Amino acid sequence: MSHALRKASRLDIPPRDKSKVASPRAVVGYNCSHKDQVKNAFSLGFERYETAMDKLSKV
């Protein structure tokens, strides 16, 4: 017999507003290599989430 499961109330994801369109970020340049774009992506990520990565490294 299966048991009835309670609905998870701790994660509430509202419906997405489809009127907002996400625009892509600018690349390093039109004639740049994939390696340069990966470096740019990592630098953006480290810059944005530096404190979160510091906390995670201490776990």
From TrEMBL:
**Where does the source fall among the domains of life?**
Bacteria
Region of interest (Disordered), ranges: 1-23
Q: In the record, what lineage is assigned to the organism producing the protein?
A: Bacteria, Pseudomonadati, Pseudomonadota, Gammaproteobacteria, Enterobacterales
Q: What name is this protein filed under?
A: Bacteriophage protein
Which species is this record about? Proteus alimentorum
- Basic and acidic residues: compositionally biased ranges: 9-20
